[in-house]
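Researcher: Predict the fold of ATP synthase epsilon chain.
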Amino acid sequence: MADSFNFELVSPERLLLSAQVTEVVIPATEGEMTVMANHAPTMTTVKPGVVTVKMADGKSERFAVFGGFADILPTGCTLLAESAVHVDELDPSVLENRIAVVRAELEGAGDEKKTRLEQFIAELTKLGEIVIPA
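Model: Structure tokens for ATP synthase epsilon chain follow.
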């Protein structure tokens, strides 16, 4: 059996999860990363995506996050999300509204900002494809 560690998922609104887990998959900006017990100390930014958590009892939970950062230590991991929700609670209209707001920002944006906004739209769209049934 894999060693467990403490994982906390926090959004500005609330603490979504604080539990002993054996594995957490985080959508880091440089690519997905799997965190396990005794992981090397790392801090990373998080892009919009799905955080998959494998609990110490073997059950799995999935959360949609909309950015943030993760602080990883050998004894635990804390993910501070800009916004997060359990995938079962994700309202498709909320995601569509977020995309619409970012699309509106594209109007008149400079090239560098436009590139970042287009990437963000792509990440939000992919998140929707992953968590919202067709």
